[in-house]
Amino acid sequence: MIANPRKTRSLLRLGPVDLGSLRDDILAIPDSTWTSENALKPNRGYSSLDRTEHIVFRFIRDPRDCRQSSDYPQWAAWRERIEPVLYAAIRPYGYARAQFPRIMLARMAAGGRILPHKDANPAAFWPHKIHIPITTNEKVRFYIEPDFHHLEVGQAYEVNNLDVHAVDNDGDTARIHLIFECFDPDQPFA
Protein backbone atom coordinates (compact mmCIF):
# COMPACT_ATOMS: atom_id res chain seq x y z
CA MET A 1 0.00 0.00 0.00
CA ILE A 2 1.29 3.47 -0.82
CA ALA A 3 1.06 6.41 1.56
CA ASN A 4 -2.13 8.43 1.75
CA PRO A 5 -1.50 11.68 -0.17
CA ARG A 6 -3.63 13.56 2.39
CA LYS A 7 -1.22 12.80 5.27
CA THR A 8 0.79 15.69 6.65
CA ARG A 9 4.44 15.97 5.65
CA SER A 10 5.56 17.00 9.15
CA LEU A 11 3.30 18.27 11.96
CA LEU A 12 -0.18 19.67 11.41
CA ARG A 13 -1.92 21.51 14.24
CA LEU A 14 -5.60 20.57 13.90
CA GLY A 15 -6.71 22.89 16.70
CA PRO A 16 -8.08 22.81 20.24
CA VAL A 17 -10.33 20.06 21.53
CA ASP A 18 -12.50 20.28 24.62
CA LEU A 19 -11.32 17.48 26.88
CA GLY A 20 -13.90 18.33 29.57
CA SER A 21 -13.68 15.83 32.42
CA LEU A 22 -11.90 13.29 30.21
CA ARG A 23 -8.51 14.69 31.22
CA ASP A 24 -9.28 14.25 34.93
CA ASP A 25 -10.59 10.72 34.29
CA ILE A 26 -7.38 9.78 32.48
CA LEU A 27 -5.16 11.30 35.16
CA ALA A 28 -7.08 9.27 37.77
CA ILE A 29 -6.21 5.92 36.15
CA PRO A 30 -4.30 3.98 38.80
CA ASP A 31 -0.76 2.75 38.14
CA SER A 32 -2.01 -0.82 38.55
CA THR A 33 -4.32 -0.37 35.54
CA TRP A 34 -1.52 1.09 33.43
CA THR A 35 0.69 -1.87 34.37
CA SER A 36 -1.92 -4.57 33.69
CA GLU A 37 -3.12 -3.02 30.41
CA ASN A 38 0.42 -2.43 29.22
CA ALA A 39 1.16 -6.14 29.66
CA LEU A 40 -1.67 -6.90 27.21
CA LYS A 41 -0.79 -4.36 24.52
CA PRO A 42 -0.35 -5.74 21.00
CA ASN A 43 2.50 -3.30 20.25
CA ARG A 44 4.78 -4.47 23.09
CA GLY A 45 7.36 -5.83 20.66
CA TYR A 46 8.35 -2.39 19.35
CA SER A 47 11.76 -1.71 20.90
CA SER A 48 11.61 1.99 20.01
CA LEU A 49 8.91 2.56 22.67
CA ASP A 50 11.35 2.30 25.62
CA ARG A 51 9.44 3.03 28.86
CA THR A 52 6.14 4.01 27.31
CA GLU A 53 3.05 2.28 28.71
CA HIS A 54 -0.17 1.92 26.73
CA ILE A 55 -3.82 1.37 27.40
CA VAL A 56 -5.13 0.10 24.08
CA PHE A 57 -8.79 0.67 23.21
CA ARG A 58 -8.71 -0.45 19.58
CA PHE A 59 -5.97 -1.98 17.45
CA ILE A 60 -5.56 -3.33 13.94
CA ARG A 61 -5.92 -7.07 13.38
CA ASP A 62 -3.33 -7.27 10.60
CA PRO A 63 -0.19 -5.08 10.33
CA ARG A 64 -0.74 -4.98 6.57
CA ASP A 65 -4.29 -3.56 6.59
CA CYS A 66 -5.78 -0.70 8.62
CA ARG A 67 -9.35 -1.47 7.57
CA GLN A 68 -9.91 -4.25 10.12
CA SER A 69 -9.51 -3.62 13.83
CA SER A 70 -10.68 -5.05 17.13
CA ASP A 71 -12.00 -3.38 20.25
CA TYR A 72 -10.13 -4.12 23.49
CA PRO A 73 -11.96 -4.56 26.83
CA GLN A 74 -11.32 -1.02 28.13
CA TRP A 75 -13.05 0.52 25.09
CA ALA A 76 -16.54 -0.26 26.41
CA ALA A 77 -15.88 1.79 29.55
CA TRP A 78 -14.24 4.73 27.75
CA ARG A 79 -16.00 4.95 24.38
CA GLU A 80 -18.67 7.50 25.31
CA ARG A 81 -16.04 9.85 26.74
CA ILE A 82 -13.38 9.44 24.06
CA GLU A 83 -15.32 9.28 20.78
CA PRO A 84 -16.55 12.91 20.91
CA VAL A 85 -12.93 14.05 21.35
CA LEU A 86 -11.83 11.98 18.34
CA TYR A 87 -14.52 13.47 16.12
CA ALA A 88 -13.78 17.00 17.34
CA ALA A 89 -10.08 16.55 16.59
CA ILE A 90 -10.65 15.43 13.00
CA ARG A 91 -13.33 18.01 12.16
CA PRO A 92 -10.88 19.91 9.87
CA TYR A 93 -10.71 16.88 7.55
CA GLY A 94 -14.45 16.93 6.88
CA TYR A 95 -14.77 13.13 6.89
CA ALA A 96 -18.41 12.06 7.00
CA ARG A 97 -17.72 8.46 8.03
CA ALA A 98 -14.30 8.42 9.70
CA GLN A 99 -12.87 5.11 10.83
CA PHE A 100 -10.53 4.79 13.83
CA PRO A 101 -8.42 1.62 13.50
CA ARG A 102 -6.11 2.33 16.45
CA ILE A 103 -6.98 4.22 19.65
CA MET A 104 -4.83 4.23 22.77
CA LEU A 105 -3.44 6.18 25.68
CA ALA A 106 0.35 6.38 25.91
CA ARG A 107 2.14 7.30 29.14
CA MET A 108 5.83 8.06 28.88
CA ALA A 109 7.64 8.13 32.21
CA ALA A 110 9.87 11.01 33.21
CA GLY A 111 13.22 10.38 31.54
CA GLY A 112 11.57 8.17 28.92
CA ARG A 113 12.39 8.05 25.24
CA ILE A 114 10.81 6.89 22.06
CA LEU A 115 13.76 6.18 19.85
CA PRO A 116 13.95 7.56 16.29
CA HIS A 117 11.91 5.36 13.98
CA LYS A 118 9.43 5.28 11.13
CA ASP A 119 6.10 3.45 11.38
CA ALA A 120 6.98 0.78 8.85
CA ASN A 121 4.05 -1.61 8.85
CA PRO A 122 1.78 -1.17 5.81
CA ALA A 123 -1.29 -0.54 8.01
CA ALA A 124 0.32 2.76 9.10
CA PHE A 125 0.65 4.13 5.56
CA TRP A 126 -2.94 5.20 5.01
CA PRO A 127 -4.48 6.59 8.24
CA HIS A 128 -3.73 9.99 9.71
CA LYS A 129 -1.85 9.64 13.03
CA ILE A 130 -3.28 12.03 15.63
CA HIS A 131 -1.89 12.99 19.06
CA ILE A 132 -3.79 14.88 21.75
CA PRO A 133 -1.62 15.69 24.77
CA ILE A 134 -3.43 15.04 28.05
CA THR A 135 -0.50 16.06 30.24
CA THR A 136 3.02 17.12 29.40
CA ASN A 137 5.84 19.27 30.71
CA GLU A 138 8.13 21.89 29.18
CA LYS A 139 10.92 19.38 28.71
CA VAL A 140 9.03 17.00 26.43
CA ARG A 141 10.29 17.32 22.88
CA PHE A 142 8.65 15.63 19.91
CA TYR A 143 11.00 15.25 16.97
CA ILE A 144 9.56 14.96 13.47
CA GLU A 145 12.32 15.15 10.91
CA PRO A 146 13.87 17.74 10.72
CA ASP A 147 12.44 19.74 13.67
CA PHE A 148 11.68 19.51 17.40
CA HIS A 149 8.19 20.47 18.63
CA HIS A 150 6.42 20.93 21.94
CA LEU A 151 2.83 19.68 21.77
CA GLU A 152 0.37 21.55 24.00
CA VAL A 153 -2.29 20.00 26.22
CA GLY A 154 -5.76 20.11 24.69
CA GLN A 155 -4.56 20.59 21.11
CA ALA A 156 -4.89 17.96 18.39
CA TYR A 157 -1.97 17.35 16.05
CA GLU A 158 -1.45 15.13 13.06
CA VAL A 159 2.10 13.79 12.99
CA ASN A 160 4.00 12.38 10.06
CA ASN A 161 4.49 8.79 11.21
CA LEU A 162 6.16 7.73 7.96
CA ASP A 163 9.20 9.92 8.45
CA VAL A 164 11.68 9.70 11.30
CA HIS A 165 10.11 10.72 14.59
CA ALA A 166 11.06 10.41 18.26
CA VAL A 167 10.18 11.76 21.71
CA ASP A 168 12.30 12.72 24.72
CA ASN A 169 10.79 13.39 28.12
CA ASP A 170 13.55 15.16 30.02
CA GLY A 171 11.09 16.48 32.60
CA ASP A 172 10.18 15.28 36.08
CA THR A 173 6.61 14.21 35.23
CA ALA A 174 5.01 11.70 32.89
CA ARG A 175 3.67 12.65 29.49
CA ILE A 176 0.28 11.19 28.51
CA HIS A 177 -1.17 11.39 25.00
CA LEU A 178 -4.38 10.15 23.49
CA ILE A 179 -3.16 8.69 20.20
CA PHE A 180 -5.33 7.47 17.38
CA GLU A 181 -5.45 6.89 13.67
CA CYS A 182 -8.26 7.83 11.33
CA PHE A 183 -9.10 7.52 7.68
CA ASP A 184 -11.98 8.27 5.35
CA PRO A 185 -13.46 4.98 4.08
CA ASP A 186 -14.97 6.92 1.17
CA GLN A 187 -11.49 7.85 -0.10
CA PRO A 188 -10.30 5.04 -2.38
CA PHE A 189 -7.24 3.22 -1.11
CA ALA A 190 -4.33 3.29 -3.53
What does the model show?
The protein is of the alpha+beta class and 190 residues long. The chain has one domain (11-182): B-lactam Antibiotic, Isopenicillin N Synthase, Chain (Jelly Rolls, Sandwich). The protein is built from three helices and eleven strands. It has a seven-stranded antiparallel sheet. A four-stranded antiparallel sheet has the order 5-10-7-8, with no helix packed on it. The protein is globular, with a radius of gyration of 15 Å. The mean pLDDT is 93.
**What characterizes the major β-sheet?**
7 strands, antiparallel
Number of helices: 3
Computed structural class = alpha+beta
Helix content: 10-25%
Strand proportion: 35-45%
Task: Look up the CATH topology.
Answer: Jelly Rolls
CATH architecture: Sandwich
Distance between the termini: 6 Å
Instruction: From the alpha carbons, calculate the radius of gyration and give it in angstroms.
Output: 15 Å
How many domains? The number is: 1
CATH homology superfamily name = B-lactam Antibiotic, Isopenicillin N Synthase, Chain
The CATH class name reads Mainly Beta
Question: Features of this protein?
Answer:
17% helix, 190 residues, single chain, 11 strands, 3 helices, 7-stranded antiparallel beta sheet, alpha+beta, globular, Jelly Rolls
